[in-house]
Amino acid sequence: MSRQRSTPADPRRPAWAEAFERSEDVPTNPSPEPTLGDVINARFNRRGLLKGTLGVSAVAGLMAASPLAMLVASGKAHASGSRSRYDFQEISHGVDRTHHVAPGYDADILIRWGDPVTPGAPAFDPANQSAERQAQQFGYNNDYVGYVPLNGSSEHGLLCVNHEYTNEELMFPGIERQDRGETPFANMTREMVDIEMAAHGGSVLEVRRRDGKWQVVANSRYGRRITANGTEMRISGPAAGHARMQTSADPTGRRVIGTFNNCAGGITPWGTYLMAEENFNGYFSGTLPEGHKESANHKRYGVPGNWYAWGRWHERFDVAKEPNEPNRHGWIVEVDPLDPTSRPVKRTALGRFKHEGAESIVNADGRVVVYSGDDQRFDY
Fold first, then answer.
1. pTM, whole model, 2 decimals?
2. What radius of gyration do the chain's Cα atoms show?
3. pLDDT tens digits, one per residue of 115-143
């Protein structure tokens, strides 16, 4: 019996949007063992969890004081030290063109898709896009945001931002998304594909708080874009050089171009930026020959997902031509944000799956512990 849950369709959303969401809920785990949700439900019921101290601890941890919170909203400090700093007047639920925040707070745009990131980057022109320009500009669909202080400052530092995926039907005029699983974007050109590949990855920004407002420092020497099609990375750890990591473009199995579907991440105790590769399977297309040695591996990860048109223009995303290329994705990528010329590293010792985050601590015994969950439904 299938364990997949069904979600009622929302009549306000187009069919392709519903299909897009459902595609990430298709389980690929054949194990009959209990899921994490089953384990949690056996120990707590929902009402008890929300009312108990575990729920309070989780919220407290999530809302821990951080300079990053000021990037989203800022409010008036409470005069009484005994009152929570997160008290605010609740606003009513609704969907419109206005970004609503609670009274006493405000929200400001720090940076937008296409804004300059690297020194000398051109201004954004949505009617005149190119992969070269996009590789210098802020990417699309932010996920993880991390802060690395400069000189220990909570008001001057580097912002590390993941760009998880793209919406081609919003980026390019005349593009219509089809349901995933069908031929995606039949009218996508190679130029469009290259632009959206450059919009994936991550950005490193220098930011400073002045007069209570955060600003991006223009033409900063730290400004950097990491992309799916232009950033060479080193493969390290136990999988580096393995035969299943080797491709025609990289017979050594030790270097790879780019990273994509970077969901959450983390900042290490030594100040590097970890980018988690999540639903990498969706970027591949093509069909493996019957009985291919990678067939079981690809099936387990849901490869190919056929979500994008990349394989039509770049052979490495066609599994029939490069069956090992998917093996080079699904890792944790480490980036040194203080050195924009440094080469990112895929740390294979941290395991391969659909990573949702990579937060780390220094344990009491001096070891570094990295936490990362698998975002695929019914995985771990």
1. 0.83
2. 22
3. 999 999 999 999 999 999 999 999 999 99
Q: Which of 259, 262, 256 is nearest to 240 (CA)?
A: 256
Q: What's the pLDDT score for residue 345?
A: 98
In our burial notation (b when 16+ CB lie closer than 10 A, e otherwise), range 337-353 reads beebeeebbbbbebbbb
| Whether the predicted pLDDT of 216 surpasses 50 | yes
**How many CB atoms are closer than 10 A to CB 44?**
14
Lowest mean pLDDT of 16-20, 62-66, 329-333, name the range: 62-66
According to the model, what pLDDT value does residue 30 have?
85
**Are 233 and 176 a contacting pair, CB within 8 Å?**
no
Computed over every residue of the chain, the mean pLDDT equals: 86
Q: Residue type at 119?
A: P
Q: How far apart are CA 59 and CA 178, in angstroms?
A: 38
Task: Give the residue from 210, 234, 195 showing the smallest Cα distance to 348.
Answer: 234
Residues in the chain: 380
Q: Decide if pLDDT at 223 tops 70.
A: yes
**Which backbone phi and psi does 362 adopt, to 5 degrees?**
-95, 115
At 129, list the tokens.
């896009």
How does strand 345-347 pair with strand 232-236? Answer: parallel
Give per-residue pLDDT as tens, 335-360: 999 999 999 999 999 999 999 999 99
What are phi and psi for residue 332, nearest 5 degrees? -100, 130
How many CB atoms lie under 10 A from the CB of residue 290?
6
* CA-CA-CA-CA torsion sign (16, 18, 20, 26): negative
